[in-house]
Amino acid sequence: MTVEWLTRALEESRARGFLGPNSLEPHLAHAEGFAITWNALRPAPPEHFLDLGSGGGLPGLVLLEKWDNFGVLLDSMQKRVALLREVLSWPGAPENGRAVLGRAEEVARESAYDERFDLVTSRAFGPPSVTAECAVRFLKVGGLLIVSEPPESDSSKRWESPALKALGMASLGFFRFETGYQVLEKMAKTPKTYPRTNGTPRKTPLF
After folding, report:
1. Which of 127, 145, 125, 146 lies closest to 136, judged by CA?
2. What's the CA gap between 152 and 134, in Å, rounded?
3. Containing domain of residue 143, as a range?
């Protein structure tokens, strides 16, 4: 993928310190892995996806360009969201992308985002318990959470917990396309108690 606006956007993100200083190619391959993982499980692209803790725009910007669907890039840091809004306004950028400022625990309860998405992606949002709890309300029943896993991690142990069932989620397993990706499916509507209030998922993890 060598789209001019996307390359420029990622270079700007790197220049502002939101991506590492190295080559963009590994970042692009990593982001493409989310799409490959989705395609391994579902025959058509998601109609709506949300990138949780989008940061410098990965994988959200890459997926927007690839799928040209409705995508939300969510982050709690104003400077990062300002950058994402800026690059999404550039000529050639996909028209269906939206950068949203806010905490996942709060935004997930807004009617525009509550159980609206087929896919939630997470590149480096937090530990498994935090990621699952903050992502689950965004997903429709039947939607997928795809999380990139740290190198050499034992994914089976990281995501083995009865607490996933309490969230209404189940693991579909671990996939590797150079990088490893853990996939969870939302099996039932989210209980009203989740996600808990701001900061609680990190301070008191479910597992």
Report:
1. 145
2. 24
3. 4-203
User: What amino acid is encoded at 73 in this protein?
Assistant: L
3-state percent helix, strand, coil for the chain, nearest multiple of 5: 35, 25, 40
Spatial separation of the C-alpha atoms in residues 166 and 155, rounded to whole Å: 20
**CATH number for the domain harbouring residue 157:** 3.40.50.150
AA letter at 206:
L
Which residue from 21, 22, 20, 29 is spatially nearest to 2, judged by alpha carbons?
A: 29
Instruction: Count structural domains, the chain.
Output: 1
d(CA 58, CA 86): 15
Report the relative pairing of strands 97-101 and 117-122 from DSSP bridges: unpaired
Residue 22 pLDDT exceeds 90: no
Q: In the chain, what percentage of residues exceed pLDDT 90?
A: 88
Residue with tokens 């991690």: 153
Quote the pLDDT of residue 160.
80
The pLDDT, as a whole number, for residue 148 is 96
Cα gap 120→145, rounded to integer Å? 5
